[in-house]
Design brief:
336 residues; alpha+beta; Phosphorylase Kinase, domain 1; Aminoglycoside 3'-phosphotransferase, Chain: A, domain 2; 2 domains; six-stranded antiparallel beta sheet; two-stranded antiparallel ribbon; 10 helices; 14% strand; globular
Length: 336
């Protein structure tokens, strides 16, 4: 989940981007010609490239403009490689083009400004069952702990560049995803409630601190759509939001859009049980989990305001803000 595409309508943009996907499909080794099929368009645009008999499949990600620099994309790919090679986390291989290049800048007549593109291995698997998440959460906690352990011990490559996800980039003058007060269905009363919430979150996160044990490189979007389960193996995809933040932010992202569910405390407990198989987590950290859930909630609210044209924002609708108000009241009653 990332920054907006601008004012262009989604359908018009997709028509243009298809020309990039068609051109890209000819840049990678394949046994037979590959045809692009749109998988997802929310921030980046993702295509499945497949030949006519379905025997060969690859993933193409077309980046939106003016968000990640080539250095930042290179840094993302470096961590994906290192997690798989050093820690055994099942991440997709990055596929170079015929020229050996891993990040392609592709221009077409329809997209003269050009787009950065990356090819990934196609990984088989299904998203965890949203109706029965409990079996997946201990393993998710364990995998997340392994990723955090790697981040703590990994020497960042020269020129490593990723966003920070912190109070300033969430609520400051130039937030990555826009301002929360542009979210849907807000009024003065709700604005005052969320202002109190942001002040409380900012205070508590400042007190929590950003020591090396608590703050480092994270996936930053561990929601169900970015996890694949295949024959008992959990695979992690889409590191586009990966950056520097509190490690507990990864738990909050795993609970995106479902924070109000009655089984959330049990899911958190299951995640913590799995996490503690691999890494320690203190009681002080555990006690602050509600703060990270509300931080994520407010970031998504801001994202919806800057992405109102997307299918995801429209599917969430005003109800997301309504539930956010209830969650904010509950949080402030305990921590405000």
């Amino acid at each position: 989940m990332t920054a907006a595409h601008g004012d262009e309508g989604q359908d018009a943009l997709l028509r243009r981007l298809e020309s990039v996907a068609v051109k890209a499909s000819g840049l990678i080794e394949s046994q037979a010609p590959l045809a692009p099929q749109l998988i997802n368009h929310s921030e980046n645009t993702t295509y499945l490239l497949r030949n006519s008999d379905g025997a060969e499949a690859k993933i193409l990600r077309i980046h939106r403009t003016d968000y990640h620099s080539p250095a930042a994309i290179k840094s993302e790919l470096a961590w994906i490689d290192a997690l798989r090679e050093d820690e055994g986390v099942h991440t997709p291989h990055i596929l170079p083009g015929r020229d050996g290049v891993r990040i392609h800048f592709i221009k077409t007549d329809d997209v003269p400004e050009g787009r950065q593109c990356v090819f990934f291995e196609f990984l088989a698997g299904d998203e965890p069952n949203g109706d029965n998440l409990m079996p997946a959460f201990p393993d998710l906690g364990a995998i997340t702990a392994r990723m955090h352990r790697h981040a703590r011990n990994w020497t960042l490559p020269d020129g490593f560049e990723r966003f920070h996800w912190n109070v300033e980039t969430a609520f400051g003058d130039a937030p990555h995803w826009g301002h929360w007060h542009h979210g849907p269905n807000l009024n003065d009363e709700r604005g005052k409630l969320f202002t109190r919430l942001v002040e409380t979150l900012s205070h508590r996160l400042g007190r929590f601190g950003d020591s090396r044990e608590r703050y480092g490189l994270v996936h930053a979007d561990m929601r169900l759509a970015n996890l694949l389960i295949h024959e008992g193996d959990t695979r992690v995809i889409d590191f586009d939001d990966s950056g520097i933040s509190w490690y507990l932010y990864d738990l909050a992202t795993a609970l995106s859009f479902i924070e109000e569910r009655p089984d959330v405390p049990a899911l958190i407990a299951a995640w913590l049980e799995g996490y503690r198989r691999e890494e320690k987590i203190s009681q002080a950290e555990e006690d602050e989990i509600p703060t990270f859930l509300m931080l994520r909630r407010m970031l998504i609210l801001a994202w919806m305001g800057s992405h109102s044209e997307t299918d995801l924002a429209q599917s969430l609708g005003n109800e997301y803000t309504d539930i956010s108000c209830d969650l904010a009241e509950t949080y402030l009653a305990q921590f405000g």
